[in-house]
Write a structure and sequence with these properties.
It is globular, with a radius of gyration of 19 Å. The strands form 3 sheets. A 7-stranded mixed beta barrel has the order 4-10-9-7-5-11-12. It has a two-stranded antiparallel ribbon with strand order 2-3. Strands 6-8 form a two-stranded parallel ribbon. With about 270 residues, the protein is of the alpha/beta class. The longest helix is centred in the N-terminal third of the chain and has 13 residues. The protein has one domain: Putative cyclase (Glucose Oxidase, domain 1). Helix 5 runs parallel beside helix 6. The chain has 6 helices and 12 strands.
Amino acid sequence: MNHRQGSLALLGILSCLPGYLTAAAWTEGKWIDLSHDFAKDTLYWPTADKFAKSTVFAGETDKGYYYSAYNVAAAEHGGTHVDAPVHFARDHISVDKIPLEQLIGNGIVIRVEDQIGKRDKSDKPDRNYLISIADIERWEKQHGPIEKDSIVLFDTGSAQYWPDAEKYMGTAERGEAAVDKLNFPGLSPEAAIFLAEKRGVKAVGLDTPSIDYGASRLFKTHRELFKRNIPALENVANLKALPDKGFTLIALPMKIRGGSGGPTRVVAFLPAR
């Protein structure tokens, strides 16, 4: 990228930021971390490789100074991460090709925790809730229509269970058989289409392991979003610390060439009021 291209890219990103974010505002506001850290207890899909960290060296060298270095390995999809459109849409953009301006911008939080957790016939809490258009419209009734190019986050209350796999995902078991026991909320395909086509959002995210709910086997929400090149953030943390609107979201994934997703540091900036 030459200087002119870099300048144009920066201008494109800045144009996506709310108008109230002046140079002074960046020094007066508050940053909120919306990411789970990565460690041996980080949650992954039952069939995915978990995070592993091994020590290369940690201690005093023969030259008399301290030095530490580690090797890490993990699946793309686990912990706080982004799903790139190519994850479920052939020939669509990979994680390294997602435009920065699509992962930086005005954020909102739609809270649906009060809709989740009703008990089924076996008296076990059923968390397989599908976030609906009606949930979105309830938010809009209070705050007004979602603005075009917003990044929409859903607070299902799931982050409080992290990293307890059974409470968070529905099962602590690993392997293919465990997939049938997954139990957590997700976004309905109809609501995904509504956000994409009627509201023009540029990304979505939520505090669960998947943008589709736990009982999904066809992953229609992934498919509807990704064929429209709308990425999804999963396992987002700390949404309770955010207001319903009026913040800037920044989600920067590991730049894996050709990757279908990657670990992501998600943060929000709350301007001083």
